[in-house]
Amino acid sequence: GQLTKQFNVIDDQVLNPLNKIVDIVSGGAWIGEGANAFMDEINTLVIPKVTSIGTEIDVTKTLVIKAEDLIVQADERVSQLVNSQLVDAFKFY
Q1: Average pLDDT for 15-24
Q2: Rounded to whole angstroms, how far apart are CA atoms 53 and 47?
């Protein structure tokens, strides 16, 4: 659903472009202290943070699905109890 789409957005619009930039800079397009500092920051701060956001979205998705399953189970159980009580209340002998 929606959470999976958000996870895909992080991959498509954030991580993939960042990885392309890393590849370009690593390939020698930019060299020197600034390039090294940039690469260090991207690799140690940015990519891990973005990846952790994706992980949190995935965990949230799993928890939402579990909650939805519990709600459906509870709803089914309540329906069974109500129907059972109605049958008992309106039994005609």
Answers
A1: 94
A2: 10
